[in-house]
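ESCALATION

Customer reports they have been waiting on this structure for their group meeting. Please prioritize. Original submission:
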Amino acid sequence: VTGSLPGTTQAPVITSPTAVAAAVGQPLFYQLLASGNPTSYAITSGTLPAGLTFDAGAATVTGQPLSAGVSTVVFTATNAIGSGTRSVTFTVGPALTLEQALDGAGLVWTTTGGAAWLPQNAITDDGSDAGQSGLIGNSQSSRVSTTVAGPATVTFRWRADTEANRDIVRL
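Update from on-call: job pushed to the front of the queue and completed.
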């Protein structure tokens, strides 16, 4: 018997981000997303950083990295028509605090929403470190906040990596 799932007219195309930043000891959640109604997912090349595990049934990578370093993994999504692959690089930075990463000495930072903000050093403006929201899916949010007593001058830099016509950034 041959055939395909209803609505499946192409091999899967994995659309998840190709770069994942993490920090030692900080929780990580990465969701593989793909078009083409995949029926299975697998790691076909490479090794995840120590402390992270791949759940093929849920198409997720979770855990807490144990050491700093860079690992590249190739994921494959398969359906009755074929397979699609995506190379994903996991960059695990040293253990940092959010206070250090946000250059907010003496400030108390609060993170809320579907995924906590993490300190990281893979993508920065100052070449040192920065904060990054945890990975979120559709209809999820991630927030970071602090209170500054004034008078004071507050400066910040931000970068958004958003899905076109889908995501909202509020300051």
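Sent to customer with the following note: The mean pLDDT is 88.
Escalation resolved.
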